[in-house]
C-alpha cells in the first residue's frame, strides 16, 4: 500500500515536472525566426544583381528594361518568401521598405530610372553605396538569427 | 548648407515609431543607435549638399538620396531590433537548457 502510494507520488511529481517543462518550452518559443540559408543566399544574390543594374543606370532604362523587370520580380519573390516565414515580421518589414515603389530604395529606384530614362553617374555613385548598406542590414539580421544547430 | 540637426530630429521622430513597442530603456538604446548611425552618415550628407551646390547632382537627386538614407536608417533600426530579439531568444534557450539539465539531475 505504502509502496503504491510512493509510486503514485513519484509519477505525479514526474508528470508535474514534465508539464512545467512543457509550459516553459511554450513560454520560451523563439520571438524571431531562425536563420534561413535560402533567405540569406537570396539577399546576397539580390544585392549583387541590384548593384550591377544600378551601375548601368547612366544608360537608357529601355535598354535594360528586361533585366529591371526581372530584378523587380526577384525582389518581390524575396519579400513574399520573408512574409511566408513564421515569426519573421522584422525581416518582412525590411523587404517591404526595399521593394516599396513609393519609397527610395530598390522599388523607388526602378521607378525613378524608368521615369527619367537615364540617371547621372554622380548620383549613381552615391546611391549604390546606400543600397549596398540597405542590403547589408537584411543580410546582417539574417546572419544574426539563431542557427538551427543552436536549438536542441 | 544642409541642416543636419533638423534632419537628425526628423529622423529620430520617424524612428520612434519603429521602436515604439520596446521598453523605455531598450527604446532609448535603439534611438541612440539610430542617432549614432545618423552621425556616421553626417559626412555623406555634407558631401551631397556640396555636390548639389556644385551642380554635380540635381535637387531631385539630392532629395532622393536623402530619403533613401532615411529608409536605410529605418532598415538599420529594424536590424538592431531583430538582433536584440535574437539575443534574447539565445538567452532563453540557454536558460531552458540549464533548467532541463537541473530537472534531469533531480529526477535521475
Description:
The complex is a heterodimer of chains A (152) and B (108). Chain A has 152 residues and is mainly alpha-helical. Chain A has 6 helices and no strands. Chain A has helices spanning 2-27, 37-54, 65-84, 89-99, 106-116, 121-144. The longest helix of chain A has 26 residues, at 2-27. The model of chain A has no long low-confidence stretch (mean pLDDT 89). Chain B is mainly α. The mean pLDDT of chain B is 80. The interface between A and B is large, with 43 and 39 residues.
Q: How would the blueprint of this fold be written?
A:
The complex is a heterodimer of chains A (152) and B (108).
Chain A: H1 2-27, H2 37-54, H3 65-84, H4 89-99, H5 106-116, H6 121-144
Chain B: H1 4-18, H2 24-40, H3 42-53, H4 59-107
List its salient traits.
heterodimer; A: 152 residues; mainly alpha; 6 helices; B: 108 residues; 4 helices; 86% helix; 0% strand
Q: What's the helix count of chain A? A: 6
Count of individual beta strands of chain A: 0
Low-confidence segments of chain A: none
**Percent strand of chain A:** under 5%
Shape of chain A: elongated
Average pLDDT of chain B works out at 80
Sheet/helix structural class of chain A: mainly alpha
The biggest beta sheet of chain A, please?
none
Rg estimate of chain A, integer Å: 25 Å
Q: What percentage of residues of chain B falls in helices of 4 or more residues? A: over 70%
Supply the number of helical segments of chain B. Answer: 4
Chain-averaged pLDDT of chain A? 89
Shape label of chain B: elongated
Estimate percent helicity of chain A. Answer: over 70%
Major sheet description of chain B: none
Proportion of residues in β-strands of chain B: under 5%
Our measurement of the CA-to-CA distance between the termini of chain A, rounded to an integer number of angstroms, reads: 41 Å
Derived structural class of chain B = mainly alpha
**Order of helical and strand elements of chain A:** HHHHHH
